[in-house]
Specification:
about 35% strand, about 220 residues, globular
């Protein structure tokens, strides 16, 4: 008969007191470190990413009001800006010299220069002095242009098609000047006020080739 030796009891191992104390110490240290990391040196609370994004990104509902639409222009609305009469130019006018009853005198004669709107495009305005010079039969200027008479301030004159304005035109007798060098003239060269183009007005007279002698004087244009 075989006799079995009794089994040796199994010993259970337990952690030592030193190991438990070490684990407890590490746990406390980790908690302390986590508490320190939760706040900055400036004492401010930590901000979650979602809170930061909502504070820095403007909401669509908080956007500024849309800019007002620009005022519509006359062209956009189909209207047009008001435009007054244009200045009368040489191609819109016809000229004539008319006698004045009782205008003749010992030293000269007074007549009127008449400018008529012959355009078909509408009204135009004249204001001030026309420029006037003698022309010979070949169309060359003779002598000095007309001097301006002393007059009140010019007033714009509006001329509808067919209407006219007139300016006084005074002539001195050429023969009274010894150094005149008399020459027969065939027409007048007329510049409307503020225009660089001219028109020719048939008018026979006597001029001086000496450009230092002013035989004519012209006034401002006035409504007829």
């Amino acid at each position: 008969m075989i006799t079995m030796a009794p089994a040796s009891p199994v010993k259970k191992s337990f952690p030592s007191r030193k190991a438990l104390a070490l684990v407890a110490l590490l746990t406390l240290s980790g908690s302390a470190l986590a508490g320190c990391g939760g706040s900055g040196d400036d004492g401010g609370a930590s901000v979650s990413p979602s809170a930061s994004a909502s504070e820095t990104t403007p909401s669509p509902s908080a956007s500024s009001e849309p800019a007002p639409a620009p005022a519509s222009s006359p062209a956009a609305t189909g209207g047009s800006a008001a435009v007054g009469p244009v200045p009368c130019t040489a191609d819109m006018l016809a000229g004539a010299v008319e006698n004045v009853p009782g205008g003749a005198g010992a030293d000269g004669i007074s007549r009127v220069l008449v400018l008529t709107n012959i355009s078909t495009d509408g009204t135009c305005t004249v204001a001030g002095y026309p420029g006037v010079s003698y022309l010979d039969a070949a169309g060359q200027q003779v002598g000095a242009p007309a001097a301006r008479t002393e007059a009140a301030a010019a007033v714009p004159v509006t001329l509808a098609p067919g209407q006219a304005a007139a300016a006084e035109l005074r002539e001195t007798v050429a023969q009274k000047y010894g150094n005149c060098q008399v020459l027969e003239t065939a027409s007048l060269l007329v510049y409307p006020p503020e225009d660089t183009a001219s028109l020719t007005v048939p008018y026979s007279s006597t001029g001086c080739t000496n450009a230092d002698i002013e035989l004519m004087q012209v006034g401002i244009l006035q409504a007829r």
